[in-house]
Each structure stands twice: as C-alpha cells, then as structure tokens.
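Title: Prediction job returns without error message
Component: structure pipeline
Severity: low
Priority: P3
Assignee: unassigned

Description:
Job completed but the reporter wants confirmation the result is attached to the right record. Sequence as submitted:
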Amino acid sequence: MTVTSELCAKIAATNYADLGQPAIAAARRLVLDGLAIAIAGTEEEAIQILAEHTREQGGSPEATAIGFGFHTNSVAAAALNGAAMHVLDFEPMWSPANHALSTTLAAVLALAEARGASGRDVITALVKGVELQGWIRQASGQFEAKTLRFHPPGAAGPLGAAVAAGHLLGLDADGLANAIGIAASRAGSVLANVGTMTKSTHCGHASALGLESALLAARGFTANTDTFGAAQGYTQAFYDDFKSEELLGFGRAPFRVASPGYAIKMFPSQFGTHFGISAGLDINSKMPASAGIRRVTLTAPPMAYVNRPFPKTGLDGKFSLQYTAASALLDGQVGIRTFTDEHLAKPDMQALLAKFEVVHDDKIPGRFEDMYVILKVELDNGQTLESRCNGPRGKWGTTPITEAEHLVKVRDCLSTRLDAKTQTRLIDQARKIDDLDAAGIHQLMELAGRFPKGK
C-alpha cells in the first residue's frame, strides 16, 4: 500500500464512535465559534460583495447563505460561508499554524443541508477534515512564516474539505483517494493577498473546491490516487521536505482537534499580533491616565508579512504588529470595531504609529508555540513600562479560554445580526449539534441564515 491508500483506509474507517468525548466536545465548540464569527463576518464589505455576486450567479437552493436570507447550491454556499467565517481573522488558530475551521465547517454544513445529514455526521466530518489538515501541516515542516510558500489554508484546506465531505457522501477508501487527488490540483493561495479582501476567499475557495472534489469523486470522476507520493505531485509542488509517513498518524488518539487542540481567538486579527496586543493591554492597565507616550518599541521575531508600520485600511491593520499593539495601548481593548478605516484614521492613532518601532530579533523563534514579544513604552514623564508576552491566553500550554469567556465572544459576534432570543436559540442548538437530526440541522442553519430587517 502507498501512504495515500493506507491513509484513505484509515479515514474511511473512522466514525463517530471512534472520536471520543474530548474530540466531540472540542468539535461542538468549534461549530458554535464558526457560526458566530461567520455571522459577524457578514457585516464586512468583502462578504457583502461576495454575497451579491453569489446571489446573481443563481443555483439550486439547497444550502443557506449565512446571514443573507437566501439559498444557493452547496458549493457556492461553502465558498461564501467559508469566506465569512474567515474574513474577520477571528477563527481559532491551530498547531502548526492553519485555518482549519472555515475550510472544513463551511463545506460540511452546506453538504449536510443539501443531503440531510445528522449532527453526528457533521461532527464526525468536521473532526476528520481538521485531522487531515493537521497532519498535512505537521508533515510539511513549514512551521514559521518565513518558510511558507503558500497561505496554509489554501494548500491544506481543499484536501481537508474533500475528506470531510467524503464522510457525508459515504466515500470508501478508493473514493477518498480520488477526492483528495482532485483537490490537490485545486490547492493554492498567494500570501501577497494577506491584508486584502481576497485573503478571506483562500478559506472559502478551499472549502468549496474540496466539497466539489468529493462530489465529483462520488460521481466516478478520477485523479491520480497517490497524492502524497506521486512524482511532480502535491507534496513536491507545495513543500520542500514533506514527510508523507507522518500522515499515518491520522486518527491516533486523541484526535488533533483535542490535542494539541486549537487556540480560541479573543481578538479578530492575525494570531502573531495577539502577542503584542496582550502586552499592550498589560501596559495599558498600568499606565497613568494622563501620561503621554514618547516612544514605543516592540521586539519580535522576523515576521515580514505583519510588519506594517502604516496600514492602508482597517482590514490591513489586522496584519500589522504596530497597529494592533497601538490599539491595545490607546483603547485598552481590541475588538471587531478596532479594524475600521475610521478607527485607523483617528489622529491619536496616527500619531502613535509614528512613534512605533518594531525590532526583529532573529534569536526569537517565529513559530507561535515558541515565540514571544517584548513591548517597551517610554512615557513623556520619563517613566518606562515594559511587558513580555509568551503567548495570549488560550494558546497551547496556557490557561484555556473558559466557556463563559467564549460565550461573551460568541454573543458579541451574534449581536451584529441577531436579536437576543435568536442568539440563545442558535447557541443552544449548536452546543448540542450531535443530538440533532437532519431537521435539526436545517433549523440551526435557518437561524444562522436570518437576514435582519433594515440590513
């Protein structure tokens, strides 16, 4: 057997009963987080443009466009909802770094609606899609931003979505090998688009293309079935030293959704910026109310794509070490409304950005698991305040985000579109998703799809 065929046999043999309670509980929380951030994401201009485009393209009304009150075909719904789930950069972070939720959950929910799947199948499909992406990222050896060739969800996401959709379609090992093979030819993303509207589509397209790959495989469409071993294949195109044998860790208890698990994001920005935000919030809490800031220095690992001294837009600011930490220092909080063009343009913000310096230290690891930052703030009164952050709360190995804290985030996201009664109903349904039958999944998506009056 090849690595690919052995892997596909493992994937096909995995069912709900194999997951274990830690993975099931972790997946339930992911469903709630994903739906909440997707609903909040529909407020963004990028998603509104995508929604209008999707509506105009038409298609069989089989799956919900989250937050927009219309239905379209499952592939189009996965593309739109996956982008909405990612656009705020508010979805969980994985180890090694990836966006495995939007690339998987959007496809699973769309296909579950279209094919009448149960909540148990949704959970199982989600865990399997996330699991494959985790092992692809582990096998890749690309653990730091400076070693990336493609944006990770664009490279790994289509394959994970294909596996997740393959579960709902009942694909056997051979069918999965073809689905993964098809998805391999649809993978890719360009890091230069980080900070633009296009970044959200890296995840939306990964979800949709993986779903379509599985649908095609279910019809008998074929591909090279040795995705992880073929000459001039997937691994050689995307990676320099891919260790295919590591993929056979798939399904090794506990599942990756539970260990190493994921970091719930409490700030809607690139995960590396959370280190500077956390340090900035710490210093803000200690800074005299009337103190003026003379100079700010942030020492961090080399992370070129988030070194943006003067971001052009609020969206661009999500990927700026300078802007995110400055917002924490000035406001004492960082949330969805931090990343508007209006907030970026505030005179005090622009003045502080002019005083901000990022020092890149090659000795600091760039991998999220090991990195740290040091933030130093010199005040006009001569006082210097300093804070080191080894990782935001919720990062692997740190104090986890509690259910109560997570619900604050969830309700804040849901409140952008839904009234309090609908929020509660959606939360209750999502938290027991594996108890839902097909009708219950449709009800959950109906709640997520509600289009508020006046919007």
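Comment from assignee: result matches the submitted record. The radius of gyration is 22 Å.
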